[in-house]
């Protein structure tokens, strides 16, 4: 079974390093969600049914559904691997969202943006001679860029979790439990420990 990567040390520098943030999320998703079929297959005990020699006398059609996994193995997988990895990624995205909404006094591009803004205000615009001369697109601040990245990663996270939960539901009997409810129940159980 895959091992989830260790959670990063949460600092504003980690969040502003978009490469490090994306890499952590990519590796975490790759370890669990992208390989969910392999992880679920690893839960199946291959020799739990003895070999039946009569099974080779007739051609067997392919099974329509996938083989179900033992409920206890599924529960342990969800409680010890799947939900903790989702929680770590949620914690990282929530922390970075908080950094993105906080003031950023250490923004290294602050002065450069102010200079560009001043030049844009001083520029003489004659749209009759150049219809594009009035265009000015100010740079995003570090916090605005981080907020956009967190928004995008949350959308990706939602899509990946829905796909993973669907596959888990096929192999483990989830009894129609919605993903959010299952995660909330797991969180409540974690707080009680």
TrEMBL record:
Record-level GO cellular component terms: mitochondrial intermembrane space
Region Disordered, residue ranges: 44-67
InterPro entries: MIX23 (IPR019171), MIX23_fungal (IPR016805)
Stated family: Belongs to the MIX23 family.
Record's protein name: Caffeine-induced death protein 2
Organism: Neohortaea acidophila
